[in-house]
């Protein structure tokens, strides 16, 4: 019984000692973060789409707070109104940018693209392109399997069943990238 008591006491003392060491190390190496970053992040739309060039809204908020000149930063989902709000909060000049939307420049509908292969597999542009470049002779054009539709968070892209080309709903598109 005595051995069990010593074992339990030793483990308790080691646990408390480890907790104290962790506490003091955490206090010594803690990083103070500007509280404005959280406020700016709340002002952003929270889509975390990456259209601004950062991994998510937190990265953009961090850059907006830390940079003196924010003219090169822009949130395409929030648009000019969100950027004006953020700039006013930070006391900086808001960047002016015209609204953008995704544009399909491919005019190669089914009748214009010669079929050179018969693809019968997973309906994914990435898979079809990796196998042999898709089923048409155009190596640069749209494959029409809808990977862009799946990726769009705003339901702004749809595949036209006749042309098998994507069509963009400009009212829903935020040009998030």
UniProtKB/TrEMBL annotation:
InterPro entries: 4Fe-4S_dom, 4Fe4S_Ferredoxin_RnfB, Elect_transpt_cplx_RnfB/RsxB
GO MF annotation terms: 4 iron, 4 sulfur cluster binding; electron transfer activity; metal ion binding
Pfam families listed in its UniProt record: FeS
Alphabetic keyword roster: 4Fe-4S, Electron transport, Iron, Iron-sulfur, Membrane, Metal-binding, Repeat, Translocase, Transmembrane, Transmembrane helix, Transport
Occurrences of domain 4Fe-4S (ranges): 32-92
Keyword Transmembrane helix in annotation: yes
TM region positions: 6-26
Name used for this protein in its record: Electron transport complex, RnfABCDGE type, B subunit
Biological source species: human gut metagenome
